[in-house]
Amino acid sequence: MRPIISIVLSFLFSTTGFAAGKAEHIVVVVWDGMRPDFMTEQYTPALHQLAQEGVFFQNHHPVYLSATEVNGTAISTGAYPAHSGIMANKEYRPRLDMLKAVGTESSETVRAGDRLTKGRYLSLPTIAEILQSRGYSTAIAGTKAVALLHDRKERDERYRLGKILFTDKTLPTNASTQLIQALGPYPKSAQPNAARDEWTTRALAGPFWKDGVPKFSLLWLSEPDFSQHDFGPGSETAVAALKSSDNNLARVLGELERRGLRGKTDIFVVSDHGFSTITQTADVAKVLQGAGFKAAREFKRPPSKDDILVISNGGATLLYVIGRDSKLIRKVVAFLQRQEFTGVLFTRKPVEGAFTLDQASIKTPNAPDILIALRWASDKSSNGTAGLVFCDESGRKPGQGMHVTLSRFDMHNTLIASGPDFRHGAVDELPTGNVDIAPTILWILGIKPPKPMDGRVLTEALMIDGPKVGAPKTTRIEAAHQKQKSVWRQYLQRTELNGVIYLDEGNGGLEPR
Length: 513
Description:
Layout: H1 4-15, E1 25-31, H2 45-53, E2 55-61, H3 68-77, H4 81-84, E3 90-91, E4 102-103, H5 107-117, H6 127-133, E5 138-142, E6 162-166, E7 169-171, H7 175-183, H8 194-205, E8 216-221, H9 225-231, H10 236-258, E9 265-270, E10 276-281, H11 284-290, E11 294-296, E12 307-312, E13 316-321, H12 326-336, E14 342-347, E15 355-356, E16 370-374, E17 376-380, E18 386-391, E19 401-402, E20 415-418, E21 426-433, H13 437-445, E22 473-482, E23 486-497, E24 500-512
Parallel strand pairs: 1-8, 1-9, 2-21, 5-6, 5-8, 10-18, 11-12, 14-15
Antiparallel strand pairs: 2-20, 3-4, 6-7, 9-20, 10-19, 12-13, 13-16, 14-16, 17-18, 22-23, 23-24
């Protein structure tokens, strides 16, 4: 249930007028997987300088699951997964595919989802959609397919309010030909993924801005996520990837400067999630099969009621019990509480020793019956980077990078904002989150959101008036299950401010009785 304060603030925001900021343009640059502790003058000079000029948000959070598509949606809608409809990168949507998981960002899933829901694949409108409905132009460019979730409306060349690039595809579709003519062919993938990120940056700052910088632009870079997954955060390749993203940020800032718009533009640099290093791998499906459960990664035939579909999201695993039998679900949960890889368990309905999906704001119509957030530790990797996690993903191995756990390193990400509406040289120590970006942008632009948002306006960082900010309150909830010789105990630390709940971390394990 949405907190009362959040409802009141959202209601006032959506029904009353307020003072707009000074910025004529908003530019959001996403560094996928960027941990804030890697922002240094040595590795990221342009980002470091931007933080000195504007506001560094010291206690910033993704929503859970700490995954790309989930947080791309949170950034664009200002909503928790429970209200946006996207709770994982890979989900089971049997109306789309009865036998296996679908990628929530794929164009095939998006189009089929919109057809089934009459345009409600995302339950709430995005920043780009809201602005276009007011007659403002937008531009979205992403090296990753998640960019489609920001502005997915099908369009032809006559539509003038929004252009979008997602990987090597565009809307309108003929825009890809124009990009290739201007920039050359789409580059091949490499480590780091610098060439593709640079091509995408040039597409935004060049052809997409050719006729003027739109009211809202978003650039989604694949690095450092791309390199951190294969080589681990803190590796030589990942550090080179940081420099790549920093160069692209400098390109965007330089283009705004060249056009005389730097002083009229608010810049947000944000990451979708943090990052950790894999310490051990776990094949959850195989472990469940070994215990006698009818678990599978993919069904070969229409499933029966006692079948369990296991869907890996890296640092979290989704279990869909087809018949939703409560006895079977309790049996699976009890088994998982004895496994070394289990960190925190969530269930659709209350089960002893687990939290409900509602307690993390992730209960969507397509949510699983059981969610496993894999275990983590704060120890350092061989690269000297804190944060070790279990991983359930085929092909991954120890030493590589992963996220999607409730590790404090996955749940702590980057946000820096600078421009005419932001304080100068400030550090915001209050809790903030990806859900706060959309309401803050709309507040600056003086636009009322058509529907309530879960996030808050980041008033404490602004030069303009906004809703008053209260005092944060951190709480720790626990769930336990007594066993014969031990106790399963898990915790979830949450901080609340102005009705917005930020998840800080969570973990669990067996303790001797």
